[in-house]
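are you around this afternoon, could really use another pair of eyes. what follows is a protein written twice so to speak, once as letters and once as structure tokens for the fold. i want to understand how the tokens follow from the sequence so walk me through it. anything you notice is useful, everything is just below.
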Amino acid sequence: MAENEAVASVVAQFADDVQWVREWPDKPTWRDRLRRWAFPKSYRFDGSATPPKPWVDRPAEHYERTGWRIRAAYYRSDLAFEVEYVVCDQCKIGWVESPYTYDGYKRCGLASAALRSLRRAYPGFQWHTGGGHFRESEPFWDFVSVDVPGGYTRRERCHYVEPRRAL
């Protein structure tokens, strides 16, 4: 229990201090590729490097979800929590999906801190989910949706973030 309290205090304290990345380090950048080509004997890419900040915001790696991002929390070198999200600047709406806390980090307040930091990063936005809530997760959603515009209720994504496909 003391470890959970340490995790909660350390990670929640920095929930608004987020490292924004365009590409996650497990994928070599063009500079990494150039270094590998120029210096093949001495090149070493460590894609498992611990992020310098406990909170990281990175692109989601889904081919069908262009524009989606992941807000993730790390404790030491462990991935502790992540949630996928997308926002529409035109509609002022954000959607969150698949919040997940990894074993050993549950019930530390990471999900609440992540959702709160997203609301602070996008002030004035309504927040929804794209799907329904599992019955066992309803108490969580009831708790985090208090005084949140949109209340994390189910809502279809707008056509700006979810383009209609031609049939």
